[in-house]
C-alpha cells in the first residue's frame, strides 16, 4: 500500500496498470493520491514506449505516451550524467536490465520505494537497501 510518500514507478508497474493486471489498483492509487509524489524516469518512459510499439503498435504507444506526459501527478525525471554513471554501476553488478538500473538509482537518490512486479528489480533492490512495493502478477514483459 502506498500512502502519503514518494514512490518511483518501474515500467512493469505502468504496464500492469495499462493491462489491468494484478497490482493495477496499487499503481492507480499511488498516481491518484494527492499525498503521494510519483516519479518515473525518462529512460523507463522510453522502455515503456518501445515495449508498447512492439506489443500494441504505434497508435497505442503514442496514446499511452501522451497520457503519461499529460498526467500531472507523474513526474517524469530527466537523467543527468551523475545518475547515468551510478545506474551504470548498478548495471555492472549484473542481474538487471539497463533501464531497471535507472529505476533503482532514482529510488536510491530519492530514498523512495519502487513500485514493481519485476523479480530482477526486487532482488537487486534488496542488495541496495531500496524498498519495494510489490505489484506482481503473471504479466509478461518482453524487454
TrEMBL record:
Its EC number is 3.1.-.-. Residues 7-126 form the PIN domain. Its cofactor is Mg(2+). Mg(2+) binds at residues 10, 100. Keywords: Hydrolase, Magnesium, Metal-binding, Nuclease, Toxin, Toxin-antitoxin system. SUPFAM superfamilies: PIN domain-like. One of its GO terms (molecular function) is magnesium ion binding. Pfam families: PIN (PF01850). Toxic component of a toxin-antitoxin (TA) system. An RNase. Belongs to the PINc/VapC protein family. This is Ribonuclease VapC. The gene is vapC.
Amino acid at each position: 500500500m502506498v500512502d502519503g510518500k514518494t514512490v518511483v514507478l518501474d515500467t512493469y508497474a505502468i504496464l500492469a496498470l495499462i493491462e489491468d493486471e494484478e497490482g493495477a489498483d496499487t499503481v492507480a492509487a499511488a498516481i491518484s493520491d494527492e499525498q503521494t509524489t510519483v516519479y518515473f524516469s525518462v529512460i523507463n518512459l522510453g522502455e515503456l514506449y518501445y515495449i508498447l510499439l512492439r506489443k500494441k503498435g504505434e497508435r497505442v504507444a503514442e496514446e499511452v505516451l501522451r497520457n503519461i506526459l499529460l498526467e500531472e501527478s507523474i513526474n517524469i525525471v530527466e537523467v543527468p550524467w551523475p545518475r547515468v554513471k551510478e545506474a551504470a554501476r548498478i548495471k555492472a553488478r549484473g542481474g538487471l536490465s539497463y533501464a531497471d538500473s535507472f529505476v533503482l538509482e532514482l529510488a536510491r537518490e530519492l530514498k523512495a520505494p519502487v513500485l514493481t512486479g519485476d523479480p530482477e528489480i526486487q532482488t537487486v533492490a534488496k542488495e541496495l537497501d531500496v524498498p519495494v512495493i510489490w505489484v506482481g502478477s503473471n504479466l509478461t514483459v518482453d524487454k
